[in-house]
Amino acid sequence: MVEIIGLFTEKISYERIQWLFPFLKSFFLFNKVNKTNIQMYLTGSALYSLFNYDSLLNWDDLANEEILIRVDQNEARKIGFSCDTISESLKISNKIIWTNIFWDDLVKELIKEKRFDSIGYLQLESPYQNRTSVYAIQLLNAIYNSGIRPELYLYLDGLHMGLKNQNPSEFENIGNSIETLAQNLMSKNTSVHFFACSRCATSRGYVKEIDSEGNFKSDCMIDPIQIINLKKIIECVGAVSPALSSNCINIFNLNNKKSNKTNLFIFITHFPYDLEYTFGAISFAIASMNQGIRTTVIFIEDGVLALGSDHHIIESDKIFNIQDIIESTLHEENLRYYALEESINNRQIKINPKFKEISCVKSNTIANFILTDEDKFLHKIIFF
Amino acid sequence: MSKSEIPQGTVDYTSLTCTNLMIKMKVLTQKMETGQSLKFLTTKEGNSNLSGAFNKYPYKYESKQIEPNLFFATIIRV
Questions:
Q1: pLDDT tens for residues A62-77?
Q2: Is B26 within 8 Å of A212 when comparing Cβ atoms?
Q3: Which SS3 state, helix, strand or coil, does residue A124 take?
Q4: Which of A175, A353, A370, B73 is the most exposed place for a label (fewest CB within 10 A)?
Q5: Could you tell me the pTM of the whole model?
Q6: How far apart are CA A172 and CA B76, in angstroms?
Q7: Which of residues 4-63 of B touch A (CB under 8 A)?
Q8: Which one of A199, A318, A328 would you mutate to disrupt binding with B, by most B Cβ within 10 Å of its Cβ?
Q9: From the CB of residue A353, how many other CB atoms can be counted at a distance below 10 Å?
Q10: Buried b vs exposed e over A123-136: b needs ≥16 C-beta within 10 Å?
């Protein structure tokens, strides 16, 4: 049996629905021998896709399959949505479960009929400006309450969740919440695996010094968080346990529970340079590949723009040329690059000839990659 | 090897963290011609990571320790 658990907190755009739903449906089409079970967990801005007319038609079509949608009732309440807002005439209305214990439900399903020592969460966004930091705390507490060790990995602007002396007047104090959780773990003699990427910490001014042993010292990061090399974070993300992020999909091959193998898929969805997502994603992929984890990078939506035209970066620009990085890592053993055909067609771009080896694939092909890789227990998809 | 023996003009990459260093080396070596070499300073961890990645065809990796956390490294395109 294939079990797919997707978590979405950001807007599920119409374009995303156009490739994501066929991707999910492919698991039913290609996997007729074994059962497929899909659960989608929606909170935050992802909820809006359930109330947009064009999207609803697609959701209704997806509802023909074995899919369950869990809606965060607490977040829906905040934006004025309720089960009354969805017409009962739609098939989708029968597939939606409104839950006010959203994160507990997610964790319960992740661990059902499986054994994990830990569940990790990769945070990419800063607190206060982004509500994903609140979701991170809620999820980590739900993991803790389930009796499993929660792990937190801070990457890119996620680092700022660990800044000392946070003092919001109206919002939940994220730093305090992390410290409280760490204290709870320590009181139960459970090790605290709250990690921050050293590259991201250094660039954001958190690293005061590096001692002779190579340890990173900070006087502005809260105590429970260790600043470590990205390699260590990758080891955790690549382990045989779920790794979540604000938008992610974990796919379990329950016929293969004894396997200790996992795959990592990184979906790059942002423009190449205005935000750090693309560089962060590729760095993550390269670090993952170096750890021997089979890593697949797929350029999707605006992410495909990294492959079009010819980027000219000069030294004084002080940024890495994304295309140079891709080109120099095209032939690595554990790293594959693809581009989503639907996204390229939507943007009418021509792929730079130096990327002729990067195949354009449809979303159902990506599903096939996963289904035909039968010796893996867990495939993790992280959206950047 | 001592610090005084470091050739003039050797680039110091000790401030680059692990993955950034790997990316930098991948990009620089991609553009190297056969016989060309890249000489630089790196940390103990950088040396460990790069030796694993670049000690195979078409590259050769050599390094000399200067201090516990300082290495003089060379990548040659063979």
A1: 888 888 999 999 999 9
A2: no
A3: coil
A4: A353
A5: 0.94
A6: 54
A7: 17-20, 22-23, 26-27, 29-30, 43-45, 49, 52-53
A8: A328
A9: 7
A10: bbbbbbebbbbbbb
